[in-house]
Amino acid sequence: MDYLEPEYQEAYDTWAKDKTPDANASILRALDPVVNKGTSMYGGGSPLARSRARRLTLEGLESYDRNRARLQSHLLNQMKSLQRITRQQNEVVRAPERVVLDKMKLKKHEQELVDTLGRDPSDSELSNHSGFSLKRINHVRNWQPGVGSGQLSSIDQNLAGGSFSGGPATQAAWLEIVYDSLPALDQKVMELSMGLHGRKALSNQEIARKLGRSPGAISQRKKKIQELIRQEESLSPFSE
Hints:
With 240 residues, the chain is mostly helical.
């Protein structure tokens, strides 16, 4: 028996045939009511919880069996982990010693992924492997004695496609939502281009050398990311 709801059938079938960034963005738009529901139920309705809910939605799609359950029920079950993740994201760490220990752990987890993948991991992969939220990774990378961590290091406004409605926190949260829909290599390009999660922003040539790609290939990936940001900006939950 096919339990897939009719309202999601077309988007799901298209996504199942072609799991590209465009297909990811399309099905996330179709499933936006489910994402909002899960964010409200398990994440307190925060923008950062919504960003994580979108990632969990894409992960849940991979394990979905339409012959066993409704898609909404399956995805909401996946989103229960938002309760734990939200607690981690909202944790306020006061002890400098904890930051130093986390920095050591982060370096260890990153090296483990380099050994396993044969390349530098994206921050999303590092977050999943280490259990640290992206917010925590940013804090640990930026921490210095007596200095607090910032939102984002320099944002490449050319890549972002111009201004956003709202302030820096709004920009950061929306860029993370777009980031979550990308495959690992494009996430890496976005991280290095825009200086996400405490990284230093690099030029196309520097990114190309780091990732073993040509500058032209990096430029093409940046253009695709820019198109996705512009394509979805009108759907931003922060726009007026």
